[in-house]
Design brief:
Distance between the termini: 95 Å
Number of helices: 45
Domain P-type ATPase N-terminal: 60-96
Keywords: ATP-binding, Endoplasmic reticulum, Magnesium, Membrane, Metal-binding, Nucleotide-binding, Translocase, Transmembrane, Transmembrane helix
Radius of gyration: 40 Å
Shape: elongated
InterPro entries: ATPase_P-typ_cyto_dom_N, ATPase_P-typ_P_site, ATPase_P-typ_TM_dom_sf, ATPase_P-typ_transduc_dom_A_sf, HAD-like_sf, HAD_sf, P-type_ATPase_IV, P-type_ATPase_N
Strand order of the largest sheet: 14-33-32-31-15-27-30-29-28
Oligomer: single chain
Transmembrane segments: 254-275, 295-317, 1033-1050, 1062-1082, 1110-1133, 1139-1158, 1170-1194, 1214-1233
Catalytic activity: a beta-D-glucosyl-(1<->1')-N-acylsphing-4-enine(out) + ATP + H2O = a beta-D-glucosyl-(1<->1')-N-acylsphing-4-enine(in) + ADP + phosphate + H(+); ATP + H2O + phospholipidSide 1 = ADP + phosphate + phospholipidSide 2
């Protein structure tokens, strides 16, 4: 029954036609569909109701859950319509167990599932319980998207049973959620408790099938989607099928073969009718009862059966076998093997290998495709001041030469594991008591480690990313928090900017923190800073930090929070202000009581504070009188900091993107270290302050619409609600506002930062801007109410959350910008140059800013110094239309013929179009599409900047459909998936952004440079081999079938044949089947070295004679001629004799075999011992079979008797004369035509082959002359040095 449900489910998916968003209907409105207070569940419409599988809701569960899919899975390659005899329903399941030891296939919607660490999630579940006291759970999604970094999931917020041991009987809530769909990043719904309170659900609460539980002892969830309704299975569309261009052309040829078959059968039917009508008084028996018309009708279908070999059905099977052979050699090409990653090319689509040889447009992503996607912090700008990090730049140059060495730094344990390197997967799942250890706790014992901990590193933790060399100028300013190293004192405002900048780098992310000896770092309940607040105060006073030296001891008295508040009070503009009245201290202390994060001091603590203040005054006097002791104390402080750094060296950051990891490592280099993370707080080390627990209020994740992410925190020092934002500079710069009271200062900062951004982009760096915003409590409360409504909404949840984030991310204060280097992959310039020489147009589609993309284009040789850039950055659609017309006129006026030299250098300048995302959106509309196509066709290359994933796919589809060209898209990230799937050939690069691009691609490579070998060599070979094999196959069938057709003119069109039926069956099946396969797999018109050195041969092969449509008719005419020779030479040779029918057919079959096999030898470009063996075996199999049949078969083919016929024929010399004469006469015109054509119009391939031969011969002669000269010189030298040698030896 489940199998029938699965078939019904797949049919519904196909009929719905919207596989991207699921198959459910959305025609009804939610309010009319389901009464939320109605306890009865419904399964139709846009959402579903889920009841738990327990006693209270048992009846509702049984009534509703049976209408949902079970967790049984059936995956098949074929469907009922394509291949019924195969195993259509291949059932598989796992033996993972639940509470009552149920198999995976028995899990249904509404069941509770209990999982332990390292277990695979059997179905999509809503997380209800986690052994972590903070209600978080870590999962690894490698089975889903290939990413090995850990993702954090959390228990449903405000869940009544959170923090308690979960029991299914205590769960009495009802779940409303959307119907199944394939969107992995979206989940909408709410949970309604028994008291009527609703709690919103989102993707952070959902555990997806096939993911693995990591670093969490136990979790409990309730199943919401099972089986084929899980998101993982709905994203599994089965084997992808693409039809190649050559296959489409073959279908046309097959239709012409059907037309030929129809004409031949119709001719035979008409001829038989006339023949029957001509015998009024026949001397032999003729069926006079059947009318000639009816007899002709019968003969028509008889001839269809006799001549059906003309339709090369076996050609399709042969093509599949040939493609398997070609893929085998592609897959095992060592030049496309990446030793560092231990990966080789993957051929995921088995039916489009020949399309690799016909590519005309190549669309490439930039980050991770042309570049390494190994982001390394390079430089930054803070407060309008640039910090170039020159030492860091020199370090990167050193790493350039060490790129082939170990990329991941080895982190070892102190308990005997120093020799083991880290793996990339976490398998350690300690008990709660172990997982709550912090960095300052004692390390676990060795036996615990050996039993529970396996070493690992985080994603994107390369050595280059981790070892950032700080800028001396920036270090000098930061040292004012702990040290006095310069006579210049930075302003309090600048110091505030610097502190907030690095704090934003450390916390504005989704990085998971762990270490080798601990699965993750959590936030302790109470944490004491590494230095007391009074030590911080003393530190500033010792070094005469002007804002604090003016403070009297009485003004500093109060709670530690009061001191910190006055020290780091920030307004919206980020300036540092100080409160001097004593009364303000009391007010602030009182206000601090309203927040739990602001502890009060008891009376005893206040007394201790007075004592410490007195000690502070004594310390100040000691500092003035004993500077040596002060210097010694600073050295001790430095050693303490270094000790802390040794501890934090073992931190492992698991980031979702490489640039996120690079920024966290950069902040850590300046001692602003992210040490732990939980769902509600962050643990951060700040320079000069120590460890602080920061309350995490909200995370607004990055999305392609906003192009930024934000975190909302409560500042640990001021208690204010602060929004830290990082994102694309084009977005942040527009959102940054200047306050009215300090407009000049902020405009200066913004202007300087923009100049630095432009400079970074010209250097090819990836740029990000960092900003902040301080919210008042009433502003935050007002925004929070709307945000909570958006989170709990089912309808339009994503749109509401987007609007909520945009309302918050306004009037930002610009802190600074960062420049991250992403190096080009090796041999990218050479690969791009080779592709352009092959006349493949290369387009770059990237989300980066324009200057960065142009700089990378120059670096990878996509742009030359002589090329002219055409920039399209428009502010409106009308301006875009006018600009396109002007650019088209400019290109038409400046166009000139571009002749390519052997080095691919252009004899005249070319045009390069650079277009931004906004202008591209208008260009893709119907009104401007034609102008955009005309302009892009006239340009050598196009660079699309700031483009979204949807725009990428739209560009590829536009070029593919409207220009009718073969397109290839290559990318490495999830944002390239749509582009890869739309293109005729999709290539995924297994890079730093997971495996989503690889899993959606037709071919997967590890480096961009492998494209040149894949296209120029393997693509050229596959296309030429299959094109020639198809023509040869059609020729072979037409030639042999015509022998039977010509015989009909001499047998009254009766459908008789002149050969044995077994020979007729086996001629195409056995005797002539193997040579075309070897020909299609091993033939090489040119060696790989020549194809790589002369990329121009790639395009010339597409326009060669084998690819022209009229070659089909030339091949058919040649087959007709050879069949005429093969039939009528034996006919005239045996004219007037009493030879029998089978005796007449014997030399015809033998001659046909020789002609067909030698025809292939003539067409082959390669003749190896394998070819010779196959040809010999084909001939031997034919003659061996007919001789055995002739010698031993008496009644094998009634009513004829082949006994002794072949033996008799082969005993006569006439048989061999006929075979030789027929073969030579049939093949001589083809040889003459090829010689004449190659003499008058030699192809580029032939010229290249001749050049290779000449070069080899010249090299051989030069080596002979050198050897002779060298040998003579050696002999003369030997005789001169040894006068005693005999002349003959000298």
């Amino acid at each position: 029954m489940e199998r029938l449900r699965w078939v019904q489910h797949r049919c519904q998916q196909l009929l719905a036609g919207d596989s991207r968003r699921g198959w459910y209907s959305d025609g009804l409105h939610n309010s009319s569909l389901l009464n939320t207070h109605d306890p009865r569940g419904r399964v139709c419409g846009k959402q579903r109701t889920i009841f738990p599988h327990n006693g209270l809701h048992q009846q509702d569960y049984e009534r509703v859950s049976r209408n949902y899919k079970s967790n049984a899975i059936s995956t098949t390659k074929y469907t009922l319509l394509t291949f019924i005899p195969m195993n259509l329903f291949e059932q598989f399941h796992s033996t993972q167990k639940s509470y009552i030891d149920q198999c995976w296939k028995n899990v249904r919607v509404g069941d509770f599932v209990h999982l332990s660490c390292n277990e695979i999630i059997p179905a999509d579940m809503l997380l209800l319980y986690s052994s972590d006291p903070r209600g978080v759970c870590y999962i690894e999604t490698a089975n889903l998207d290939g990413e090995t970094n850990l993702k954090q999931r959390q228990v449903v917020s405000d869940f009544p049973l959170q923090g308690e041991e979960f029991t299914p009987e205590s769960f009495h809530s009802r779940i409303e959620c959307e119907n199944p769909n394939n969107d992995l990043s979206r989940f909408r719904g709410y949970m309604e408790h028994s008291n009527g309170v609703r709690v919103g659900l989102h993707s952070g609460n959902l555990l997806l099938r096939s993911c693995t539980i990591r670093n969490t002892e136990t979790v409990v969830g309730i199943v919401v989607y099972a089986g084929h309704e899980t998101k993982a299975m709905m994203n599994n569309s089965g084997p992808r099928y693409k039809r190649s261009k050559l296959e489409k052309h073959l279908n046309t040829d097959i239709l012409w073969c059907v037309v030929l078959l129809f004409i031949m059968c119709l001719t035979a039917a008409i001829g038989h009718g006339f023949w029957m009508n001509s015998f009024e008084e026949s001397i032999f028996q003729v069926d006079t009862e059947t009318s000639p018309a009816l007899a002709g009708f019968y003969i028509f279908w008889t001839m269809v059966i006799v001549l059906q070999v003309l339709i090369p059905i076996s050609l399709y099977v042969s093509i599949e076998i040939v493609k398997l052979g070609q893929i085998y050699f592609i897959h095992n090409d060592l030049s496309m093997y990446n030793e560092q990653l231990d990966s080789r090319i993957q051929c995921r689509a088995l039916n489009i290998t020949e399309d690799l040889g016909q590519i005309q447009y190549l669309f490439s992503d930039k980050t991770g495709t042309l570049t390494e996607n190994k982001m390394v912090f390079r430089c930054c700008s803070i407060f309008g001041v640039e910090y170039p990090h020159e030492e860091n730049a020199r370090r990167l140059e050193v790493y350039e030469s060490e790129n082939s060495e170990t990329a991941v730094r080895s982190v070892t344990l102190r308990s005997g594991y120093s020799g083991k390197s880290l793996s990339c997967r976490s398998l350690s799942c300690n008990r709660s008591s172990v997982s709550l250890h912090t960095l300052t706790a004692e390390p676990m014992e060795e036996d615990q480690l050996s039993g529970h901990v396996q070493l690992r590193t985080g994603a994107f933790c390369s050595r280059m990313a981790k070892e950032v060399v700080p800028d001396p100028a920036l270090v000098k300013k930061l040292n004012w928090l702990t040290n006095h190293s310069s006579s210049e004192t930075p302003s309090s405002m600048e110091l505030t900017y610097i502190t907030d900048f690095f704090l934003a780098l450390a916390i504005c992310n989704s990085v998971v923190v762990s270490s080798p000896n601990q699965p993750r770092h959590v936030i302790p309940e109470e944490r004491t800073p590494l230095k007391s607040l009074e030590e911080i105060k003393l530190m500033f006073q010792r070094f005469s930090f002007s804002p604090f030296s003016a403070l009297s001891p009485s003004q500093i008295k109060g709670s530690p929070h009061s001191f910190k508040s006055r020290l780091f009070i920030r307004g919206k503009r980020g300036s540092l202000t100080l409160s001097t009245p004593v009364s303000n201290t009391t007010d602030m202390s009182g206000s601090s009581q309203e927040n739990d994060s602001k502890p009060d001091l008891s009376a005893r603590e206040e007394e201790e504070q007075d004592v410490e203040d007195q000690e502070t005054e004594d310390d100040l006097r000691d500092t003035q009188t004993n500077p040596d002791e002060t210097r010694q104390s600073m050295q001790d402080l430095t050693r303490q900091v270094e000790c802390v750094e040794e501890i934090t060296d073992e931190l492992v950051y698991e980031a979702e993107s490489p640039d996120e990891a690079a920024l966290v490592h950069a902040a850590r280099a300046y001692r602003c270290t992210l040490r732990g993370r939980s769902a509600e707080s962050l643990l951060v080390d700040l320079p000069g302050i120590g460890s602080l627990a920061i309350q995490l209020l909200h995370i607004l994740p990055f999305d392609s619409n906003r192009k930024r992410m934000s975190v909302v925190v409560r500042h640990p020092l001021t208690g204010q609600v602060v929004v830290f934002t990082k994102g694309a500079d084009s977005v942040i710069m527009d959102l940054a506002e200047s306050p009215t009271d300090q407009t000049e200062v902020y405009n200066h900062i913004k202007e300087k930062t923009q100049k630095h951004l432009d400079a970074y982009a010209r250097e090819g760096l990836r740029t990000l801007c960092i900003a902040k915003k301080v919210l008042k409590e009433d502003e935050y409360d007002l925004w929070l109410k709307a945000h909570m409504l958006a989170e709990s909404s089912i309808e339009n949840r994503e749109e509401l959350l987007l609007e909520s984030a945009q309302r918050l991310e306004t009037n930002l204060t610009l802190l600074g910008s960062t420049g991250i280097v992403d190096r080009l992959q090796e041999e990218v310039p050479e690969t791009v140059a080779a592709l352009q020489r092959a006349r493949i147009k290369v387009w770059v589609l990237t989300g980066d800013k324009q200057e960065t993309a142009i700089n990378i284009a120059y670096a990878c040789k996509l742009l030359c110094a002589s090329d002219k850039l055409l920039t399209a950055n428009c502010g409106s659609k009308d301006a875009c239309a006018a600009l396109f017309e002007d650019l088209i006129l400019e290109v038409q006026g400046g166009e000139s013929l571009t002749d390519l030299t052997g080095n691919g250098e252009s004899m005249s300048s070319s045009f390069i179009l650079v277009i931004d995302g906004r202008t591209l959106g208008w260009a893709l509309e119907d009104e401007l599409r034609s102008n955009f196509l005309e302009l892009s066709q006239r340009c050598k290359a196009v660079i699309c900047c700031r483009s979204t994933p949807l725009q990428k796919s739209q560009v590829v589809q536009l070029i593919r459909d409207h220009l009718g060209v073969m397109t290839l898209a290559v990318g490495d990230g999830a944002n390239d998936v749509s582009m890869i799937q739309v293109a005729d050939v999709g290539v995924g690069i297994s890079g730093q952004e997971g495996m989503q691009a690889v899993m959606s691609s037709d071919f997967a490579i590890s480096r961009f440079k492998h494209l040149s070998k894949l296209l120029l060599v393997h693509g050229h070979w596959c296309y030429s081999r299959l094109a020639n094999m198809i023509q040869y196959f059609i020729y072979k069938n037409v030639m042999y079938v015509n022998l039977l057709f010509w015989y009909q003119f001499f047998c009254g069109f009766s459908g008789s044949v002149m050969t044995n039926s077994w020979v007729l069956i086996l001629f195409n099946l056995i005797f002539t089947s193997a040579p075309p396969l070897i020909y299609g797999i091993l033939d090489q018109d040119l060696p790989a070295v020549t194809l790589m050195e002369l990329p121009e041969l790639y395009q010339d092969a597409q326009t060669s004679k084998t690819c022209v449509p009229y070659m089909f008719w030339i091949t058919v005419l040649d087959a007709f001629y050879q069949s005429l020779v093969c039939f009528f030479v034996p006919y005239f040779a045996y004219a007037g004799s009493d030879v029998g029918v089978l005796s007449f057919g014997s030399p015809i079959n033998a001659s046909a075999l020789f002609i067909i096999l030698l025809h292939q030898v003539i067409e082959s470009n390669t003749l190896t011992w394998i070819h010779v063996v196959v040809l010999v075996l084909s001939c031997a199999s034919y003659f061996g079979f007919v001789l055995l049949l002739s010698g031993f078969c008496v009644t094998c083919s009634p009513p004829v008797n082949p006994l002794g016929i072949e033996l008799l024929q082969m005993s006569h010399s006439l048989f061999y004369i006929i075979c030789v004469l027929t073969t030579v006469t049939a093949l001589l015109p083809r040889l003459f035509f090829q010689a004449l054509h190659n003499t008058l119009h030699p192809s580029t391939v032939l010229k290249s082959a001749h050049m290779d031969t000449v070069d080899s011969e010249n090299y051989r002669r030069r080596m002979q002359r050198w050897n002779m000269t060298h040998s003579k010189t050696n002999r003369l030298s030997a005789g001169a040095d040894n006068p005693g040698l005999e002349p003959s030896l000298a």
